[in-house]
Design a protein that fits this description.
With about 120 residues, this protein is α+β, with helices and mostly antiparallel strands. The chain has one domain: Kinase associated domain 1, KA1 (TATA-Binding Protein), CATH 3.30.310.80. The protein is built from 2 helices and 6 strands. The protein has helices at about 10-25, 95-110; strands spanning about 1-10, 30-40, 45-55, 60-70, 75-80, 115. It has a 6-stranded antiparallel beta sheet with strand order 2-3-4-5-1-6, covered by helices on one side. Helix 1 packs across helix 2 (about 95-110). The protein is globular, with a radius of gyration of 14 Å. It starts with a strand and ends with a strand. The model has no long low-confidence stretch (mean pLDDT about 85).
Length: about 120
């Protein structure tokens, strides 16, 4: 499993639409498997889940994205999982991180920074 958080000044709806479109266009084997928008305390929260097959890991990998407002800034939480092989070692060949990096590239184009 791999996870990263990014913070930017873009509107959450704009980020949601951009990620939804650009991630699907980034590879032929990527599928959007879940897309949900919820309103919580008068703010929208966007949840996307993608799935992609990675040859080098010989496995499917998922990428879950949660896009929300954090004190007036856009926060994107990215979690990559499922790329491991083996019962004990869960060796993933960097596939979860690779999936997150596709998202990171799009976010960096929008001026986002990785959060510590």
């Amino acid at each position: 499993m791999a996870n990263r958080i990014y913070i930017g000044d873009q509107n959450e709806e704009v980020v949601y639409q951009k990620l939804k479109k650009d991630l699907l266009a980034s590879a032929i084997s990527i599928k959007l498997v879940h897309d949900e928008i919820r309103t919580m305390y008068d703010k929208k929260v966007y949840f996307l889940v993608y799935d992609q097959y990675y040859n080098r890991a010989n496995n499917r990998v998922s990428l879950s994205l949660l896009i929300s407002d954090q004190n007036g800034r856009c926060k994107v939480s990215c979690v990559g999982s499922g790329g491991g092989q083996g019962v004990f070692f869960n060796f993933s060949w960097f596939s979860e991180d690779s999936f997150i990096l596709k998202c990171e590239k799009i976010l960096f184009e929008l001026g986002f920074k990785e959060s510590q």
